[in-house]
Design goal:
This protein is of the alpha+beta class. The protein has six helices and eight strands, in the order βαββαβαβαββαβα. The strands form two sheets. Strands 2-3-1-4 form a four-stranded antiparallel beta sheet, with helices on both faces.
């Protein structure tokens, strides 16, 4: 697949959904001053080579690096926009034909990393939206777009392991906000053929809510 950089111009470390360091503090608009980028490869060996090349290219923080199921490799970095952009480009170059997906987001919404780290408190918001994607990278892009589109909470963000390589984003809020967030979150994945499903549940049963959000 020919990569299409997103999010603007254009890692054992803990595994996805277990954590990584957040960037610098966000503004009052909920947007971080730091950038993130990721490279997801179909080859574990080539993914390790790409990760090495990325951290050698620029001064970036290796937020997550791990094997994903089924047999993929995941690299997530953060830092200053110019450094992350340079490192990201090098990762794509080295991954070559093993590149499965990638992302570059110059200003990540502040609500995304806590969800990825499993640090979001339970919610009793009225509506729940779920975005299911075919890659880990596309799930983060979907979560960021959803959070920027409406006043929702990214309640959970799960990547790949135990899910056949998929990513799942759960958002909560008022019904209009969740509908707007899901519509925005699905757009990039749908355009690139990486959307598995996007749903909105107007009023989730409390028993199920305790298990999901």
């Amino acid at each position: 697949m020919t990569p299409t950089p997103r999010g603007g111009d254009a890692a054992p470390s803990s595994p996805p959904n277990a954590g990584g360091a957040e960037g610098s503090a966000g503004s009052d608009r909920g947007v971080s001053a730091a950038a993130i980028a990721a490279v997801e490869t179909s080859s574990i060996a080539q993914g390790i080579v790409a990760a090495d090349a990325m951290v050698k290219r620029a001064e970036v923080e290796l937020l997550q690096v791990s094997v994903l199921s089924p047999g993929r490799y995941w690299i997530l970095i953060g830092g200053r926009v110019a450094d992350v952009r340079s490192s990201h480009a090098r990762g794509i170059e080295v991954a070559a034909d093993a590149l499965l997906d990638q992302l570059f987001i110059p200003q990540l919404h502040d609500g995304v990393m806590p969800a990825l780290r499993g640090l979001v408190a339970p919610s009793d918001a009225d509506a729940v939206g779920v975005l299911e994607t075919l890659t880990a990278a596309s799930a983060i892009v979907a979560a960021d777009a959803a959070a920027k589109a409406a006043g929702i909470v990214v309640a959970d963000l799960r990547l790949a392991n135990g899910m056949g390589g998929k990513g799942v984003v759960t958002v909560t809020g008022s019904l209009p906000d969740v509908e707007a967030a899901v519509a925005a979150g699905r757009a990039d994945a749908q355009k690139r053929g990486l959307l598995a499903r996007a749903v909105v549940i107007p009023r989730m049963h409390p028993v199920l809510r305790e298990h999901l959000v």
